[in-house]
Design a protein that fits this description.
Layout: E1 5-9, H1 14-17, H2 20-26, E2 33-40, H3 44-62, E3 67-74, H4 77-87, E4 92-97, H5 102-109, H6 111-118, E5 123-127, E6 139-144, H7 154-163, E7 167-174, H8 191-219, E8 223-230, H9 234-244, E9 249-254, H10 259-275, E10 280-284
Parallel strand pairs: 1-2, 1-4, 2-3, 4-5, 6-7, 6-9, 7-8, 9-10
Antiparallel strand pairs: 5-10
Helix pairs in contact: 4-6, 9-10
Pfam families: Usp
Family: Belongs to the universal stress protein A family.
Domain UspA: 3-127, 139-282
Length: 287
């Protein structure tokens, strides 16, 4: 799988440049073109320096045989980036998050979140703590929950894993079953027996589901394993699993829901985006 036109947002910082190694890998296909974009204040000295910076980075990439060009704009970042996406046929957005918190995040760190919400493109998000020398596609973690929604990116992620010879780990986090608190102790089976029976059923379903997907992926030549975890803290469990398997990338499906649907469907994605130090590849879906 390859992307034809990749937009990379740069602001002159080393953090923003951490997206470049992954973009270079994706640009190994001759049809792929990288577009380096920077938005800055309309001051002559700043604009001249920024354009020189983009020209230098583009020239550096071209020496590696990669098609690359730089564009600098002055004005409000979000609408200009979206305009650039629409006018240039972009099919992947690469950007870095500076990992701000509190008031500083509200002022400076919300740009990446706003862009993620404003576009339906897949987004490769690299966090400030990422080591750019680490192979981004070496070990991919794909959380699933058995739904069509979570599987919406399965084909794209498996294509990436095949093309980059990545190891792909499928993860299902099983939420503990809920038992009514007013269940009478005299009812048989007991509360504990009933809970264990329900939990065992959930584990068996997840096992069968993961074994089926793993078998299909392995049959297509993709190195695949799976994990099952029981927890009601889904983002935290995904992140701890990523640490445990030394994942280099977490990939998952997200969307633009709002209100109660955002609370229910988007809380896992929000928790991962907020707290993960791993690069993330987010796929949009309208399911």
């Amino acid at each position: 799988m390859y992307f034809k036109r990749i937009l990379i947002t740069l602001d002159g910082t080393k953090t923003a440049e951490k997206t470049l190694p992954a973009a270079e890998l994706m640009a190994s296909y001759p049809e792929t073109e990288l577009l380096l974009v920077s938005i800055c204040d309309p001051k002559p000295k700043i604009t001249d320096e920024r354009q020189k910076y983009l020209d230098a980075k583009s020239a550096e990439l071209r020496t590696k045989g990669i098609q690359a060009n730089g564009k600098m704009f002055c004005g409000e970042l979000l609408p200009l980036i979206l305009k650039c996406i629409n006018e240039n046929g972009i099919d992947l957005l690469c950007m870095a998050s500076h990992g701000y918190t509190g008031i500083k995040k509200m002022v400076l760190g919300s740009v990446s979140e706003k862009l993620i919400k404003a576009t339906n493109l897949p987004v490769l998000l690299v966090k400030e703590g990422h080591d750019p020398d680490k192979a981004v596609f070496a070990n991919i973690l794909l959380p699933l929950d058995g739904s069509l929604f979570s599987e919406a990116c399965l084909k794209q992620v498996s294509d990436l894993a095949r093309d980059f010879k990545s190891k792909l780990t499928l993860l299902v986090v099983i939420q503990p079953p809920c038992i009514p608190s007013d269940r009478s102790p005299s009812i048989q089976p007991s509360w504990d027996e009933y809970y264990q029976a329900l939990l065992e059923e959930l584990k068996q379903q997840a096992q069968a589901y993961l074994e089926r997907l793993t078998g299909e992926l392995q049959a297509n030549g993709i190195e695949t394993e799976f994990r099952m975890e029981v927890s009601d803290k889904i983002p935290e469990t995904i992140l701890s699993t990523a640490e445990d398997i030394n994942a280099s990338l977490i990939s998952f499906t997200t969307h633009n829901r709002s209100g109660i649907e955002k609370w229910y469907y988007g809380s896992v994605a929000a928790g991962l985006i907020e707290n993960s130090s791993h690069p993330m590849l987010l796929w949009r879906n309208s399911i």
